[in-house]
Amino acid sequence: MMKAEFVNPFLTSMTNVLTTMAQIESKPGKPTVKKTSTASGAVTGIIGMAGEQLKGSFAVSFSEPVIFAITKRMLGEEVSSVNETVIDMVGELTNMATGGAKALLAEQGFEFDMAVPVMISGKDHRIEHSSNGPTIVLPFNTEYGDFFIEVSFIPAA
């Protein structure tokens, strides 16, 4: 099982990104171990991370109302479908959240290299993490609906 001190930097970073960049407050729910690869949201960004101690990936999956609200608040652009602007926004949010988590993890002695995020969208799309370890899902609630972060890491070989 992944330790909370490893998952919490992703939770903290995602919350900080949304508060500072989009002025959207988010409240984390109860973490669970994910049993399937089906995404909980309509559009997902996933990024691989590898270090000497651990390797794996981080994903963030947004419901349409949440990512549309974030896009409007950050870009001033009204969107009503998952288009190129929305997909780019998910990639940027994935990068920002991972970068923030990477900095917090470095303070604990974990150093990582980050890959380029991959964005996936569509009904019931699948999220394939780069590690075969357990995936922890943390649901978040906002005034616009829900989004979900997933963290999956295993010891590096």
Structure summary:
The protein has 157 residues and is an alpha+beta fold.
List the SSEs and their pairings.
Blueprint: H1 4-22, E1 27-28, E2 32-33, E3 43-50, E4 54-62, H2 64-75, H3 84-107, E5 113-114, E6 118-121, E7 136-142, E8 145-155
Antiparallel strand pairs: 1-7, 2-7, 3-4, 3-5, 3-6, 4-8, 7-8
Total count of strands: 8
Net shape: globular
- Termini separation comes to 17 Å
C-alpha-based Rg, rounded: 14 Å
Secondary-structure-based class equals alpha+beta
Roughly what fraction of the amino acids lie in strands? 25-35%
Low-confidence region ranges: none
Instruction: Give the integer mean of the pLDDT values.
Output: 92
Give the SSE string: HEEEEHHEEEE
Considering DSSP H and I runs of 4 or more, what fraction of the residues is helical?
25-40%
Total number of helices: 3
Largest sheet: 8 strands, antiparallel
